[in-house]
TrEMBL record:
<protein>
    <submittedName>
        <fullName>Slc39a-3</fullName>
    </submittedName>
</protein>
<feature type="transmembrane region" description="Helical">
    <location>
        <begin position="103"/>
        <end position="120"/>
    </location>
</feature>
<feature type="transmembrane region" description="Helical">
    <location>
        <begin position="312"/>
        <end position="332"/>
    </location>
</feature>
<dbReference type="GO" id="GO:0005385">
    <property type="term" value="F:zinc ion transmembrane transporter activity"/>
</dbReference>
<dbReference type="InterPro" id="IPR003689">
    <property type="entry name" value="ZIP"/>
</dbReference>
<dbReference type="Pfam" id="PF02535">
    <property type="entry name" value="Zip"/>
</dbReference>
<feature type="transmembrane region" description="Helical">
    <location>
        <begin position="62"/>
        <end position="83"/>
    </location>
</feature>
<keyword id="KW-1133">Transmembrane helix</keyword>
<feature type="transmembrane region" description="Helical">
    <location>
        <begin position="188"/>
        <end position="208"/>
    </location>
</feature>
<feature type="transmembrane region" description="Helical">
    <location>
        <begin position="278"/>
        <end position="300"/>
    </location>
</feature>
<feature type="transmembrane region" description="Helical">
    <location>
        <begin position="214"/>
        <end position="233"/>
    </location>
</feature>
<keyword id="KW-0472">Membrane</keyword>
<feature type="transmembrane region" description="Helical">
    <location>
        <begin position="20"/>
        <end position="41"/>
    </location>
</feature>
<feature type="transmembrane region" description="Helical">
    <location>
        <begin position="245"/>
        <end position="266"/>
    </location>
</feature>
<dbReference type="GO" id="GO:0005886">
    <property type="term" value="C:plasma membrane"/>
</dbReference>
<keyword id="KW-0812">Transmembrane</keyword>
């Protein structure tokens, strides 16, 4: 990261306009990718032309390939670009503050970023389990009282009411409070992904040259598009209202722009040569770099490689992402 005055003056105005444009690009891209499949699937489900199993299986294949490509992009960008910047800038910051130590502080910050997201996600995932434990007794009482009422009604009516009992039982199960737990789980999923996205956007907002900014935008936009499509499909298959679905989609869409704005503000209002800015931005970039590694090694690769279907295509997609970004970094350096 070059924080010299000359570099800042050459690139700053262009970078300002570029980052502002990327904020709106993320908003439009992610919101569109979430809502278009959501409304299409809801429409087909309403008119009963939607074959859920066949459609989702085909879409899942495409998502898996895109996920592996995004993993290759994230892994290569993190290893060959961001991690090197973090290590170089951390050494410079330690010299500025006259910290004499052989401890690998830059690598330590990156690992802290991995653990930070791990703790946040696991902590958030405890919430739906607690909600389920609190609701299970209530749900059991409602379920058994519903069955008792149906049995008593059947005894006082003729034999034709047997089918009515089955239909009412199915309807009561469809309206079972479990659907509300699914809604809670989906909210938590979106919050967890939004936290990821803020750190991703933060890394982009902290960049001080056009090459790194555009490279990160490509990686993040691919990953966000895959996640957005997945969330759109999940929203379409729940009983959540249109209004709440749009709210969830908006929350997910603004997360990366929030991170971009935070990083941009840090660079804008601080003195470019300030040691505190150098140390602060390096730590934040290290945490963001750890987020990228977490996405690759804890989320995408374990999930995709544990599924034996289309493994060769997934490996090729991962390799293409790696080769593409490696060539771009080699040419731009």
């Amino acid at each position: 990261m070059d924080l010299s005055n000359s570099t800042s003056k050459v690139f700053f105005n262009y970078l300002t306009n570029l980052k502002i444009g990327l904020v709106f690009a993320f908003l439009f891209l992610v919101l569109t990718v979430v809502l278009i499949p959501y409304f299409i699937i809801r429409y087909y489900m309403r008119v009963k032309f939607y074959k859920r199993e066949m459609k989702l299986d085909s879409i899942q294949k495409v998502l898996s390939v895109c996920n592996c490509f995004a993993a290759g992009v994230f892994l290569t960008t993190g290893m060959l670009d961001i991690l090197n910047d973090v290590l170089k800038d951390m050494n410079e910051a330690m010299k500025t503050y006259q910290i004499k130590s052989t401890f690998p502080l830059g690598t330590f910050v990156v690992i802290c970023g991995i653990f930070l997201i791990l703790y946040i996600e696991e902590g958030i995932r405890l919430i739906p389990n607690l909600c389920k434990q609190k609701r299970v007794r209530f749900e059991s009482r409602v379920f058994h009282s519903s069955i008792t009422e149906e049995v008593q009604f059947e005894r006082t009516s003729d034999g034709k009411t047997y089918n009515t009992f089955s239909e009412n039982k199915e309807k009561s199960l469809e309206k079972f409070p479990e659907s509300k737990i699914d809604e809670i789980s989906l909210k938590i999923l979106i919050i967890a992904i939004a936290i990821h996205s803020i750190f991703e956007g933060l890394a982009l907002g902290l960049q001080v040259n056009v090459k790194d900014t555009l490279l990160l935008f490509m990686a993040i936009s691919i990953h966000k598009s895959v996640l957005a499509l997945t969330i759109g499909l999940e929203l379409a298959q729940t009983d959540i209202s249109y209004k709440m679905s749009v709210i969830f989609a908006t929350i997910f869409s603004i997360s990366s722009p929030i991170g971009i704005c935070i990083g941009f503000i840090l660079n804008y209002f601080e003195n470019p040569n300030s040691p505190s800015l150098l140390m602060g931005s390096t730590i934040l970039q290290g945490l963001a770099c750890g987020t990228f590694f977490y996405i690759v090694f804890f989320e995408i690769l374990p999930q995709e490689m544990s599924n034996k279907n289309h493994k060769i295509i997934k490996v090729l997609s991962l390799s293409i992402g790696f080769i593409l970004v490696s060539v771009l970094i080699f040419v731009l350096h």
